[in-house]
Amino acid sequence: MQVESTRRESPEAICARVFRRLRPRTPPPEISVHFLPYADAHSSACWRDGRLELRISDVLEGAPASVLEALMHILLGKLLRRPAPRVCVDRYRRYLSRRDVQRTLELIRGLRGRKQLTQPKGEHFDLEQIFDELNLRFFGGLMIRPRLSWSTRPSRTTLGHWDPAHQAIVISKYLDRPSTPRLVLEYVMYHEMLHLRYPSRACGGRRQVHTPEFRQAERMFPQLRQAQQLLRRLVQS
């Protein structure tokens, strides 16, 4: 299916053409496309007073027309309950996975996104101390310490995450309790530190968070199986 178009076309014209493909017997409605300063690549389509309204992240305002057209196929497909062509989904994902687009998204998340961080020293564990010890043991002390924080809520599902936009490792407050084996915290911290060492990358139009290099380095953690077993028991208790 041909989805290329010239960039001189207005977003509304591109959207009208996509609408005619999805509803060939229905005249296109009045269409408005707004590029808004979201903190990510969020986009949506809805009906508003009989008008078709698209709200798209301004990160995509400078995207090629073919990418905007692919996105509009996805948005209108959801709205009109028509599956988007696979070529459109792949094209849009490949664009978002581009290194320059990912850098822009991380910068915007850092500037616009809200991130509530706490002190690294918890009631029972000090994240800075754990990070520094692991840094010496596994990275020769060469890894620059990012911001370290306990989460604001004691989540059992997200035990830790690396936030590149805010340059922060956040560990679940659920682990800051006396019954948590230190080995578990060391493993969770080590896992998040590997995200700094082995960043995500695009692979086949998708973002690969855990690369083969990441997985190989994770297997080098001493007592890996014991740490994973303790972690499972802890979240299930």
Describe this structure in words.
By secondary structure, this protein is an alpha/beta fold. The chain has two domains: 11-112, 2-Layer Sandwich (Zincin-like); 127-236, 2-Layer Sandwich (Zincin-like), CATH 3.30.2010.10. 43% of the residues lie in helices and 16% in strands. It has a three-stranded mixed sheet, covered by helices on one side. α1 (11-22) packs across α2 (65-80). The radius of gyration is 22 Å and the shape is elongated. Mean pLDDT is 88; it is low at 1-7.
Features:
Zincin-like; 43% helix; alpha/beta; elongated; 8 helices; three-stranded mixed β-sheet; 237 residues
Biggest sheet strand line-up: 1-3-2
CATH topology category name of the largest domain: Zincin-like
Q: Which percent bin holds the helix content?
A: 40-55%
How far from one another are the termini? Answer: 53 Å
Report Rg: 22 Å
Query: Would you count the extended β strands for me?
Result: 8
Order of secondary-structure elements: HEEEHHHHEEEHEEHH
- On the 0-100 scale, what is the average pLDDT? 88
CATH class of the largest domain: Alpha Beta
Total number of distinct structural domains: 2
Total count of helical runs of at least 4 residues: 8
Shape: elongated
Strand % is 15-25%
The main β sheet shows up as: 3 strands, mixed
The unreliable regions are: 1-7
Q: What structural class do you assign from the helix and strand content?
A: alpha/beta
CATH architecture title of the largest domain = 2-Layer Sandwich
- The CATH superfamily of the largest domain is Metalloproteases ("zincins"), catalytic domain
